[in-house]
Amino acid sequence: MDAAFSTEVDVRYRDLDAAGHVNNAVYATYVEQARVAYFDRVVGTTLGTGDAALASLSLTFERPVCDPRGTVTVTARTTDVGETSVDQRHRLLCAGERVATAEATTVTLDAAGEPRPVPDGWRAAIREFETDPV
Question: What are the average pLDDT values for consecutive 10-residue runs of the chain, which has 134 residues?
Fold first, then answer.
């Protein structure tokens, strides 16, 4: 999976467990940061305003983050835009080595919190940005 979008996430002291490893739950936070940045920069919308919500997240851990005082690169690639949802794949890299992968689905919501069609503007922005057809 090549991804045109990536962002750097600083590993914080609070991310570490007693053994000095990045806690497994924190990987989801790193994916969240990349997902929010993707929607901000690519789609032009700010998640967290009630117009979308995370519907599912799956993480596969491969190895510990190599430098708990450094940064993690998180990539994002939209793999599908459905009627009411956007699917993405993520890679988490440390010094160029993959440490985890993730798949996330974001659902668009109306004012009542019910699923609504993905806006045409979102679809167009994603299609224009992604190098592989979505």
Answer: 85 90 94 97 89 96 86 96 98 95 97 96 96 72
Number of domains in the chain: 1
- Answer yes or no: is 27 within a domain: yes
- Residue at 121 is within a domain: yes
The structure's pTM equals 0.92
> 3 with 76: CB under 8 angstroms?
yes
Distances (CA, A) of 75 to 11, 21, 87: 16, 21, 14
